[in-house]
Each structure stands twice: as C-alpha cells, then as structure tokens.
C-alpha cells in the first residue's frame, strides 16, 4: 500500500493531472470574470502558462470584441444555468479556432460564485462538416436557435405553460419564431437554389425567405421541436433571392436537448419541378377525362335525342288534348288543367335531361353532393337506354331496398356507370348468344355501397383484369381505351375501389364501391325510368 502511495498520485493530484492532460481548455473564472484556475493546455492555445493567466480578466484572453459577444452567455451562467455555445477562440499564432464552449456555474451558499469553462477545439470537425455540408446535393441552412429560446423564455415568463398548445393556436407565433431564428450559414446548393451569397444571407432571419403562404408548415416544425420529436419533414414554399416562390421539402433535425445545442441544420430540397409535373399530369388527366366525356356524349347523341323526344312528344299530345277540352261547346277546364299539368311535368323532364347533358359536357371541377346511389343508376340507364337496346341488351335491376346515400360528384359517378353499361352492351353485341343481359345490382357492404354491372358477354381473360384499367388499353377498333381508366380515377378519388372479374352469369363483372354517407331513411326510393320494366321478384328485380 505504501509502495502504491509512492507510485500513484493521490485523488486531487490525479484530478489536476487529468485536467492538464486532456486536450481541452479547463478554467475557472470568478463572478467578476477574472481567471482563478487554468489547466496546462492553455500554454498551447495562448502560449502562456496557467500561472501567467491566473488573475487575468476574460477580456485580456479574448479581446474586447469577442468578450462583448460572450456577455449574453455570461449573464445566463450568472443565473445558475449551464450554457453551451459555439464561438471562435484566439490561438497563439494569431488565428481563431472554432470551439464548443460550456460554462458550468458554481453555486455556493451565497449564490453564484463563479463558473468553470470547458473549451473544445472543433476546427477539424468543422472542416469535415464543411466539406460534407458544401459537397452535398441538398440545400442546407445552418440556423441559430438562441433567439427562439429567448422568445420561448419570454412566453413562459408571461405565463404560457403549454408551449405546444400555444404554438398550435397562436396566429402570429410561426412568424415570430422565423424572425427570431437567425441564419448562421448556408451551403453551396442552398446558395444556388435561393440565388444568395453567404455574406448577404448570414445573420438574417430565416423568416426573410418564408412567405405567409408557407407558415403552417413552419408551425408544425416548431410544434415538432417543442414536442421533442427527433426531426420534422414537410412541404412548404420559400422565397428565392429574386423574389420568386419555390416549392420545397424541408427537413429539420432537432437537437436532443432543447437547452443544449443551439445551432441546427435545416435541409431543403427544391420540389418545384416535381410538383409542376404532377400538376401538369392532373391537368392532362382532367382534359382527357373531358375529351372522353365528350366522346361518350357523341356516341350517346341518338339516345339523348330519343330521351328528349319522348317528353316533347308528350308535351305536344297533352297540348292538343288541353285545346280540345277547352274548345268544346262545354269546355272541361278540369281535364284541360290535368293535361296542362302533364305538359309541365314532361317539359321539366326534358329540361332535366338537357341539364344533365350540359353538366357532363362542361369541364367543371368536381362538385360533391349527397344523393341516392339507386337514383344515379336509374339516371345512367335513362341516358343509355336507347343505345343499350340498339345493341340488343336488356337490363336486369336489383337495387337496395333501403336508399343508400353517398356524398360524391353525381355526374362523375353517372359517367362511371355509363362506361360500364355501354362496355357491357358492346361486349355482348359481338356474341352470337341469344341472351344479352346486363345485371345491375347495388348492395351495402359495411360502410360502403357496392354497385355491380355484370353481363352475359364473352367475359374477361383473368390475366387482363388489371390491364383493362390502364389508359389506352382497348380491344375495340374504334375504342379509346380511356373509359375504365377514367372510371378508376373517379372511383378512387371518391375513396372507393373498382375491379373486374368473371361474373356468375358467364360474362364480365365490374364492381365498384363508394363510401356510404349518413343515410336518410325517410328519403323516397328511386323511381325507375319508363324504359325499365319491373320484374315481380321481392328484391325489386326489373328488366328492360
Ligand atoms: P374502350 O371501351 O374505348 O375500349 P375502356 O377503357 O372502357 O375503353 O375498356 C377497355 C377494354 O376493356 C375494352 O376495349 C375491352 O377489351 C375491355 N372490356 C371492358 N368492358 C368489358 C366487358 N364488359 N366485357 C369484356 N371486355 C370488356
């Protein structure tokens, strides 16, 4: 033991030996900012021994300017808080090295007595970081959160307990945060993306590049930070140096502890091109859908003329009848009134058909309303009735006994049904089979309404079932191959699914679902069009 004591240093010696050996600056300053202890490592940084440094004021180490910059941190440590920050520290060769600096307060019975300082040279780490930072294809902003922390402290001091709730509710908070957060640096890619140079960007608020239209994403970023998430990613718009807006994906990796690291990096990816392409694709799809609608209309012209002709014929017939009742020797006003009422009903029916057709031809945005699925089935049958008959198809209907309502774009759902009905009739028209029936069924499946259109045509080869929904897939000489592709887009946009399979009746079976809306059980059950002859079975089965 005695030998051991002679060989190894005692604990206090060991502590000071360690303090002198580790390649970091360790010192202690009193509350007047005068050095009371400095380890040996100071010789390498300042070229002066610990003995020479002890008794010196901090400004003599740093110079007036750097000392003035430390004052906010010195004020913070005097309140008993540990402070961590990065700043340049002078070297004996006259250069300044970036360092990570930690102030650790020493509190005695009379309060603050002084503080320990740990300084780690991070110049090499910074160099490595800089080469990655500048070399990457992602834009990076290095930002300083000191201003944000000060803002949060002020809010807490003013009585805000729940910062997350405050951040979620306060309208001006995201703007205040972005103005408080300062840009320390940005990499080459960010300079290119935002058309900025380092010198003009550094020191400015991040908010200078964040317009009001993108603030909600930043609100979520701050909420993520305050809730302790490791990172947050979201899309927003930012302003370039030339004042143009760009769509960006921002990714913020948050420090592990809010009171620690204050410099964080925000990654920015320019997604304007991608979004532009997506928008162009949606526009092209809308235009194609419109073209297909107009094309469908062309095919249906004969059917429409017939549908409109029927009520017009009835108007004329009832008009003549009314005239006859009125011009009799003893005019019968009661019968004439009934005939005129029928005229009004028939004229309204013709006008409804025209309104539907005009809506289909108009390239308008989707308009969702609440309606009964059965009603839209009967409307689609009324529009296609003549065409289906001319192709030799008869329709067998099996609709829900309860009216099931959906909240959807009625014209678009009508278009899906028209596509399926006309396809079924066309598929059967090529067969020699006597039986050419289209079975239209609706049923409830949990929270969905399912509509089926089955036929007795040649059916579908199973391996083609998915391909049918691809744009431009057609087996018809004059086909466009757009009907099913558009139908799929429409159904999926409504939160439903569409699929093709083989039906029990031997032909193809197409079924699609739509989410069911809250159902009004008092709504009247839909009335079938005159072209559909009701069958006598209990499930409201009808046939043309
Ligand atoms: P188009 O009718 O212009 O060909 P669609 O997208 O509506 O375009 O249909 C694509 C293809 O799907 C059709 O060409 C046909 O081969 C097949 N198809 C659609 N419906 C049926 C059906 N009921 N029976 C058999 N094949 C069908």
Topology readout:
Blueprint lengths: L1 H6 L3 H11 L3 E6 L4 E4 L3 H5 L3 H4 L4 H5 L1 H15 L4 E8 L5 E13 L2 E11 L1 H13 L3 E6 L1 H12 L5 H7 L3 H8 L1 E5 L1 H7 L3 H4 L13 H12 L4 E9 L5 E9 L9 E8 L1 H56 L5 H29 L6 E5 H18 L3 E5 L6 E5 H20 L7 E9 L2 E8 L27 H11 L4 E5 L5 E8 L17 E2 L6 E3 L1
Parallel strand pairs: 12-14
Antiparallel strand pairs: 1-2, 1-5, 3-4, 4-5, 6-7, 6-10, 8-9, 9-10, 11-13, 12-19, 14-15, 15-17, 16-17, 18-19
The protein binds adenosine-5'-diphosphate (ADP).
- Spatially, the strands of the biggest sheet line up as 16-17-15-14-12-19-18
CATH superfamily of the largest domain: Histidine kinase-like ATPase, C-terminal domain
Number of E-state strands:
19
| Measured distance between first and last alpha carbons | 111 Å
State the shape.
Answer: elongated
Bound molecules: adenosine-5'-diphosphate
CATH architectural group of the largest domain: 2-Layer Sandwich
* Helix count from the secondary structure assignment: 18
**What's the structural domain tally?**
3
According to CATH, what is the class of the largest domain?
Alpha Beta
Average pLDDT rating:
83
Rounded Rg: 39 Å
What about the largest sheet? 7 strands, mixed
CATH-defined topology of the largest domain: Heat Shock Protein 90
How much strand content do the residues show? 15-25%
């Amino acid at each position: 033991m005695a030998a051991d004591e002679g060989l190894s240093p005692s604990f206090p010696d060991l502590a000071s030996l360690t303090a002198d050996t580790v390649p970091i600056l360790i010192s202690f300053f009193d509350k007047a900012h005068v050095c009371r202890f400095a380890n040996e490592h100071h010789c390498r940084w300042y070229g002066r021994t610990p003995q020479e440094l002890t008794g010196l004021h901090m400004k003599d180490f740093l110079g007036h300017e750097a000392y003035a910059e430390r004052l906010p941190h010195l004020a913070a440590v005097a309140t008993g808080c540990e402070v961590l920050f990065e700043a340049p520290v002078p070297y004996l060769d006259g250069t300044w090295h970036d360092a990570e600096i930690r102030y650790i307060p020493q509190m005695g019975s009379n309060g603050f007595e002084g503080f320990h300082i740990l300084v780690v040279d991070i110049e090499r780490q910074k160099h490595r970081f800089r080469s990655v930072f500048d070399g990457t294809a992602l834009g990076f902003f290095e930002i300083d959160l000191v201003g944000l922390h000060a803002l949060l402290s002020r809010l807490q001091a003013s009585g805000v307990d729940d910062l997350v709730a405050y951040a979620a509710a306060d309208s001006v908070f995201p703007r205040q945060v972005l103005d408080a957060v300062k840009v320390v640096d940005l990499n080459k890619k960010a300079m290119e993306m935002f058309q900025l140079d380092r010198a003009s960007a550094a020191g400015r608020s991040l908010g200078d590049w964040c317009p009001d239209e993108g603030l909600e994403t930043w609100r979520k970023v701050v909420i993520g930070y305050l809730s302790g998430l490791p990172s947050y990613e979201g899309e927003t718009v930012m302003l370039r140096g030339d004042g143009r807006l760009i769509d960006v994906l921002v990714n913020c990796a948050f420090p592990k502890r809010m009171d620690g690291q204050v410099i964080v990096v925000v990654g920015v990816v320019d997604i304007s091109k991608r979004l532009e392409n997506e928008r162009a694709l949606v526009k092209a799809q809308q235009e194609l859908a419109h073209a297909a609608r107009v094309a469908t209309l062309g095919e249906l012209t004969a059917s429409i003329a017939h549908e409109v002709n029927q009520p017009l014929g009835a108007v004329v017939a009832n008009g003549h009848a009314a005239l006859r009742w009125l011009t009799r020797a003893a005019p019968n006003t009661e019968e004439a009134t009934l005939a005129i009422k029928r005229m009004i009903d028939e004229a309204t029916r013709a006008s409804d058909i025209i309104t539907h057709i005009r809506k289909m031809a108009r390239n308008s945005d989707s308009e969702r309303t609440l309606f009964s699925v059965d009603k839209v089935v009967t409307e689609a049958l009324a529009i296609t009735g003549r065409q289906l008959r001319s192709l030799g198809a008869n329709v067998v209907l099996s609709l829900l006994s309860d009216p099931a309502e959906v909240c959807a774009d009625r014209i678009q759902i009508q278009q899906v049904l028209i596509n399926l009905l006309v396809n079924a009739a066309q598929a059967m028209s090529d067969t020699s089979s006597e039986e050419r029936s289209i079975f239209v069924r609706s049923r409830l499946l949990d929270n969905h309404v399912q509509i089926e259109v089955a036929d007795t045509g040649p059916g579908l080869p199973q391996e083609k079932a998915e391909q049918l929904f691809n744009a431009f897939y057609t087996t018809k000489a004059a086909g466009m191959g757009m009907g099913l592709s558009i139908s799929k887009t429409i159904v999926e946009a409504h939160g439903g699914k569409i699929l093709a399979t083989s039906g029990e009746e031997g032909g193809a079976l197409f079924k699609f679902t739509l989410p069911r809306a809250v159902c009004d059980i008092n709504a009247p059950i839909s009335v079938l069009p005159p072209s559909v002859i009701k069958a006598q079975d209990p499930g409201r089965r009808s046939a043309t």
